[in-house]
Amino acid sequence: MNNKSFLSIITSAMPLLDEYYPEYVLKYSLETNMITDSSFYSIEHQNKNLHLFSQPPQIANLSQSLLWSKYHYTFYWKIYKSDLLLMTLIVRFIYFIQVLIILLTLPLYLATFYILSKYNFINNISFSTSSDIYFYIKLKIEKYITTTPTITFMIPYINFVNYSKDYNWFLELIRPQSSPFTQTMNRNIYKTWNGEALINFKWKAYGKYYYAMIWILFMVLLGCFTAAATISQQYISEEVRQQLFIISIILGFIHLIFEIRQFFYNIIKWFYNFWNIFGKYKCLI
C-alpha cells in the first residue's frame, strides 16, 4: 500500500457503507488485515508476546539529558584544548578511576543508570565512559534475552477515530461529536486483527482511565449518600452528615451531566436503551 491517504476515503464513508452495504465493510476489513505502512518492511526481534498490541508513535523527550551532554562536552573539550601528553594522561586516569568505581559498585551502578536512562536523564549520543559502559552491558545482556521475530502491520482505519476539524470542547460537554468509529456499529470490524488492535489502543490510551474515573465517582457517591442516610447521629455529627449530602449532590450532578450528554447524543437510542428503563420508571413514579 504505497499511498495510505486513499484509505481515509473509504474509512470516512464507513458509516454509510455499514448502513447500506454492510458486506463491503466485512470485505474491506478482511482484505486489509495484513498490510505494512511501507513497501520495504523489516523483521524486528522484540521481547514481546504474540498477542496483538498497538504501537503508537513515541517521541522521546531528551531535554532532561541536555545538562549531561553539555557537561561532558565542556569537560572533554577543555581537556582536548590542553597539551596532548597531559590530555592523554588525564583521560586515562579518569577512565581508570571510573572503571574502578563501577566495578566496586556494579549492582548500584546498573540500577542507578537504568533509572537515569529510563527517564532520559542520560543518553548514548554524547561520549561518556560511565554511560557508555552501562549501554555496552545492556546491549550484551539483551543478546541473551529470547526474542520473537515480528513484523509491524498498519491499521487501515485512517482518520477513523479522529475528532472533526471544527472540534469545540465546550460543545463536546453538551453534545458529544461523533466520528466514523462511533457511527459504525459493525461487529465484523472488531473480529479482525486490525479491529482488536484498534480497540486495545483506545482502551490503553484513555478508555480504562475514563472507565475507572466513572466507577470511582459512582462508588464515592454511593458511599457518601449511604453513610449520610443510614448512619445514626451517635456515630456522625450533623455537620458531617450535611457535608456528605453536599458531596453526594455534587457527584450526582456530575453523573447527571453524563446522562444528559448521552440523551442529546442520540435521543432515540437513549429511550430504547434497556438500562434506561429503570430511570424512566422512577421518573414516572
Automatic annotation (TrEMBL):
The entry's keywords: Membrane, Transmembrane, Transmembrane helix
Superkingdom: Eukaryota
Bilayer-crossing regions: 93-116, 209-231, 243-260
Protein name per the record: Uncharacterized protein
Species this protein is from: Rhizophagus irregularis
